[in-house]
Amino acid sequence: MLHLTKVAVGCADVETLARLQGERWGAEAASLTRYMPTRAEELAGGSLFWIIKHRIVARQPILSLAMVETPWGTKCRIGLAPGPIAVQPVPKKAHQGWRYLAAADAPPDLGAAGDDDALPLGMVRELQSLWLI
């Protein structure tokens, strides 16, 4: 399995990302990009991991990949499951477009099953702002 990373441009946090997606896409979350990934078949079951403030902080399962006509020309529409899922923050440099992320390098979800020591989300944000996690 393979994943993608993409910068959430203009988003200060995961809540802003979710709000903007709702405003732009409604219940059908998606992201537009210029090109279809050449390894699209490997993305089945994968996720799009969002980078905010130089950290991977959330993911959304990829539901579909399709070339579509838009007012800006032909684009690849990455259909996503609604609502970003917070993950353990991982430092990541910003980049244009998307990049592949190997499954072995993907961070786990925050509060994953069996994670009794998960920190409250507000505390995680505060520690992230201090670059402690």
TrEMBL record:
Q: What is the originating organism of this protein?
A: Polymorphobacter multimanifer
Q: What is this protein called?
A: DUF1489 family protein
